[in-house]
Structures are given as C-alpha cells and as structure tokens.
Write a structure and sequence with these properties.
The chain is mostly beta strands and 78 residues long. The protein is built from no helices and five strands.
C-alpha cells in the first residue's frame, strides 16, 4: 500500500513472511506516521487483537474487505 491509501480504522493484513513474525495476521490501522522517538514517517500503528500494537511499514500492508460479522462480533482462534 501507499501512505496516501492508509486511513485510521482501515482493516488490513500484514504481508506473509513479514520480518515482525506476524505475517498473514489481520488488524486495524490505529494511526499513521511519526511516533515518539522518531523524526520521520515510519509506518502505521496496527492493532492485531493481541496485547501489543505493531508499527508496520505501508509496503507490507494489504487492504482487506470489511468484516462480514455484525458489530460487536469478532472471530478469534481457540
């Protein structure tokens, strides 16, 4: 993806084989751009539904269709 295509709240998938180890995971973009301690745009802050947030570069993100589940429902692995 490109910087201009990213929007907060957008559902995305991390590219398979990403160096973070979370390739193939789906999440939502929380914020885009510069984060504390950096002086340039470094990526998108992505919530993958775990107790951590990831900063991923836009090139490693793919858009996914909106969730088919009604509000308040979410899929998870057991």
């Amino acid at each position: 993806m490109k910087w201009e295509e990213l929007k907060p709240g957008m559902p995305v998938r991390i590219a398979a084989g990403h160096e973070s180890g979370f390739g193939g995971r789906k999440g939502r973009v929380l914020a885009i751009g510069t984060f504390e301690g950096y002086n340039k745009r470094i990526g998108a802050l992505v919530d993958i539904g775990e107790p951590l947030l990831l900063i991923i570069e836009p090139e490693a993100l793919e858009p996914v269709p909106k969730d088919p589940l009604p509000p308040g429902w979410e899929e998870f692995e057991v």
